[in-house]
Amino acid sequence: MKAAVLTRFGGSDAFEMRDVPVPSVGSREVRVRIHATAVNPLDYQIRRGDYADYVPLPAITGHDISGVIEEVGDEVSEFAVGDEVYYTPLIFGAQGSYAEQHVANVNLVARKPKNLSHQEAASLTLVGGTVWEAFETRARLRAGETILIHGGAGGVGTIAIQVAKAMGAQVFTTASRKNHAFVAELGADFAVDYQTEDYVEVINDLTGGAGVDVVFDTIGGDTLTRSPLVLAQMGRVVTLVDIAQPQNLIEAWGRNASYHFLFTRQNRGKLDALTRLVERGLVRPVVGATYPLARIGEAHAHLEAGSANGLRGKVVVTV
């Protein structure tokens, strides 16, 4: 099979298209013909060497798959050849998604939503599973609560807004002024222009000083230090971003806040929950750009440039 192989850590030119063996299928595994994959910040972080100790080279990376099952193991009864599925490969596992075929443990695999294309489904697996865990398991977001989502127009934010609304929350988000109408269409109740406004002042004004129940951080930087300034009592912060420098979280004490650092592991249950939302029309992936697998380096560069090139939603790769 063809695969985009990471031959060295570095820039977006570090991939090389190669012919590689098709993995064999174990008794509780399925082999999937990949139709589409996607690019996440985790993918370019791995490519540039942020997790070099966990990724022996050469490596096939990538963390989103939508495709069709071509072979099932002897002990697989949940799926059959021809089933359309989507899932996230095991993070830091043997093989990722930048290839024509993939073999996965059946417990990772879920049925693709019937109303999504493979490109749309591939854009949803890692971010969608992460958002579901962030809101349902970590923050325990409930109907009637308020949430501030940092980076509402991004690949994670676009899904987070829709899932939070589907759960019955009132949604505040940060986005550039040009994206305010876009995030409103996704379901955001209020948008703060992070380029010209202080979100702490705006959120406290909008909530009458009460603050929000949950802050969801997809940005990093000083958001952990400043998030307690917009938190209600017993508020919860969930972040997807590593802490590069120590931060002073003393403001969280007075609000009896809880912090969750989310490094997710995927499973079928999260995706099945998302599928129910998608098939009810409550969540729709946003595909901002599409590239073929042979141009995976360009896809990485596009995502890394982020808002500088007007990207909204996910960068998808067709296989």
Layout of secondary structure:
Layout: E1 2-6, E2 15-19, E3 29-39, H1 41-48, E4 65-72, E5 84-87, E6 101-105, E7 110-111, H2 118-122, H3 125-138, E8 146-149, H4 155-166, E9 170-174, H5 180-186, E10 190-192, H6 199-206, E11 212-217, H7 223-226, E12 231-239, E13 258-261, H8 268-279, E14 287-292, H9 296-305, E15 314-318
Parallel strand pairs: 8-9, 8-11, 9-10, 11-12, 12-13, 14-15
Antiparallel strand pairs: 1-2, 3-4, 3-6, 3-15, 4-5, 5-7
Helix pairs in contact: 3-4, 3-8
Structure, explained:
By secondary structure, this protein is an alpha/beta fold. Helix content is 25%, strand content 26%. The chain has helices at 41-48, 118-122, 125-138, 155-166, 180-186, 199-206, 223-226, 268-279, 296-305, and strands at 2-6, 15-19, 29-39, 65-72, 84-87, 101-105, 110-111, 146-149, 170-174, 190-192, 212-217, 231-239, 258-261, 287-292, 314-318. The strands form three sheets. Strands 3, 4, 5, 6, 7, 14 and 15 form a seven-stranded mixed beta sheet that branches. Helix 3 packs across helix 4 and helix 3 (125-138) packs across helix 8 (268-279). The longest helix has 14 residues, at 125-138. The protein is globular, with a radius of gyration of 20 Å. The mean pLDDT is 94.
Give a nutshell description of this structure.
By secondary structure, this protein is α/β, with parallel strands linked by helices. The chain contains nine helices and 15 strands.
